[in-house]
Structure formats: C-alpha cells, structure tokens
Amino acid sequence: QPVRWALEAGYRHIDTAEGYANEAEIGKAIRDSGVPREQLFIATKASSVPKGLADFAHFEDIFNFQLSQLGTDYVDVYMLHTPPPDVSQLRAVWSAMEALHAQ
Predict the structure, then answer these.
(1) Nearest residue to 66 via CA among 82, 49, 52
(2) pTM of the model
(3) Is 20 a catalytic residue?
(4) How high is the pLDDT of residue 103?
(5) What letter would DSSP give residue 92?
C-alpha cells in the first residue's frame, strides 16, 4: 500500500531488490496505481547469485522472474546488491549482466 500511495502522490522512482522479497507487491502497486510504465524509473538488484545463494546458471531465470514479479519487461537500472567476493565470479556475473543489457 505505501508504494501505491507514493505513486499516487507523484513519486516515480522505485528502488527494490530480489533480496527484499517485495517485487510482487511492488508490481501490484504499479498496476493498481494506473501510472504508465514509461513514466516510472525502476531500479532493482541481483541478490542471490552474487551472494552465492543461487547457482550462476540461474542468473537469467532469476532476472526474468524479477521482471514478471514487477509486471514489466524492463528495468531502468539493474545492479548487484552485493558484489561477489571472488573476482572471477564478479567477472562472470558482470558478463551476464552485460548480456541481459544487450537483449
């Protein structure tokens, strides 16, 4: 409800993350608000893969699930919630993010 109220009050920047476990609620608030998607700036974050809580092979599937929860086919900013501690993992995740951006 607070996100919907914020949208109704004129806020247009939404910041969320996979790790907050609230993307479905954010998506519902967006739909219920009636604010067109192109008027919103949505930022979300990758959490589970960079933190080692999910296998890297699921990175794209997790991103697509985040989009479906948010009810959109794109986000304006997608970032790492926490960078992986290992540099090779960071490079792999970053490459995957670049591939998502290219789509």
Answers:
(1) 49
(2) 0.91
(3) yes
(4) 85
(5) H
How far is 58 from 74, CA to CA, in rounded Å?
Answer: 18
The residue type found at 94 is W
Give the lowest-confidence range in 8-17, 50-59, 88-97. 50-59
DSSP 12-76: -EEE--GGGT-HHHHHHHHHHHT--GGG-EEEEEE-TTTTTSS-GGGHHHHHHHHHHHHT-S--S
Q: Which residue has the tokens 């998607």?
A: 37
Quickly state the pLDDT bin for 53 (edges 50, 70, 90). confident
Which of the residues 11, 20, 74, 78 is marked catalytic?
20
Percent of the chain with pLDDT over 90: 77
Name the residue with tokens 């008027």: 39
Query: Do 75 and 67 contact (CB within 8 A), yes or no?
Result: yes
Report which residue type is found at 48.
S
List the one residue out of 48, 56, 51 whose CA is nearest residue 99.
Answer: 56
